[in-house]
Amino acid sequence: MSRSEKFIAVSLVVGVIVLLLIPFTFIIIPAGHVGVLYRLLRHGTETDFVYHEGLNIKWPFDRIYTYEVRTKTLDESVHALARDGLSVQVEISVLYRPVPDNAGKLHQEVGYDYVDRVVRPISLGAVRDIIGKCDPHDLYRINVEELEGRILEKMHGSPAAKGLIFFERVVVRDLDLPTTVNDSINRKLTEEQNAQAYKFLIAQAQDEAERKRIEAIGIQTFYSIVANSLTPQLLTWRGIEATVQLSNSSNSKIVVVGGGKDQLPLILGSDIAKQPDLPAPKVIDPQSHPLPQWRDLPKLFPKAGDAGAAASESSAGTAPGDETNVSRAANPGAKQR
Q: What parts of the sequence cross the membrane (predicted)?
């Protein structure tokens, strides 16, 4: 063979060899993955670095293992026992992903089936450990975010996954307690709400009693002041005025008046004008007999720490002669009787 023919033959052989070695020399790492290099002729798995996305080169006799480092979800249904031994069924979703820079160590120590070897056992153990420290009543009232945080913290503290797998979040999808426990807790919460409602009704009744008491003092003071002006002649005149207004109304058709000269209009068979003459009550001067200060009145139902409670206690310890002054302060109209 001539020199040119030898060159062509050698080039063809080299080209064929290169074509055959390309799949073993050049490797493409897909998006969301990293490559772990296994050196056949040296120390084995490379843990100091990993291949990232894109085109990478290696020796034909070495091998690259790819690991997906995207966030994954593991759904589990956990059967756990509470602190008192009752069975609790918890459904969770665990969001996790391998740590990219430690993918070589993960491949060397765990392998591809790290989900069954590490993630699932850690998740189940963390849920059972947290549930086992709680009572069913605590689980019924616990904040879901708090429960998820405690489970996630327990998973982060596991030495088996530290530095290899990162747990992003734990979602508690459902938490089922035994039917008897659910019924008893619901009854207890219902009774607590009923007790709170009764306390509110009692406080409302006490406030209503205080309001009526103050209203009665005002009414009594009002009638004590205007009692001297309510004469039979005034009542008769007011009755005539009411009759005239009724007759002028466009809606009135019949005006009914009394049957005697001493009877007021509109009051059939009334004996208002025939009442015996009684001495008129004394006129009360509003300046000399003002209304009491409402905040200074002793409470009918004093509460702990209330200023009225101290006033009632001090009045309870006064002499018998001082009780009259206290009653007059609460009822100023009693002084004129």
A: 7-29
- 3-state SS assignment for residue 79: strand
Question: What CA–CA distance (Å, rounded) separates 36 from 32?
Answer: 14
CATH architecture group of domain 72-177? 2-Layer Sandwich (3.30)
- The rounded percent of the chain whose pLDDT value lies above 90 is 20
Distance CA 95, CA 175 (A): 18
Q: Report the first-to-last Cα separation within the chain, whole angstroms.
A: 150
Q: Please name which of 49, 48, 45 lies closest in space to residue 65, comparing C-alpha atoms.
A: 45
Q: What is the pLDDT of residues 154-175, one digit of tens each?
A: 999 888 888 899 999 999 988 8
- Domain extent listing, the chain: 3-68, 72-177, 224-336
What lies within 8 Å, CB to CB, of 43 at 6+ separation is none
Q: Which of 137, 117, 139 is CA-nearest to residue 128?
A: 139
**Which pLDDT tens digit goes with each residue over 64-75?**
899 999 999 999
Buried-exposed string 178-189: b where 16+ CB fall within 10 A, e elsewhere: eeebeeebeeee
- Extended beta strands in the chain, E state: 26-29, 33-39, 44-45, 54-57, 63-68, 72-81, 87-98, 165-176
Residue 2 CA to residue 145 CA, distance in Å, equals: 82
Single out the residue of 51, 58, 24, 54 nearest to residue 35, CA to CA: 51
Would you state the structure tokens that stand for residue 128, as one six-digit string?
């059972």
Helix (H, G, I), strand (E, B) or coil at 56: strand
Hunting for tokens 């089922």 — which residue is that?
176
What is the Cβ-side half-sphere exposure of residue 17, based on CA atoms within 13 angstroms?
7
Within 10 angstroms of residue 254's Cβ, the number of other Cβ atoms is 6
Q: How far apart are CA 49 and CA 32, in angstroms?
A: 16
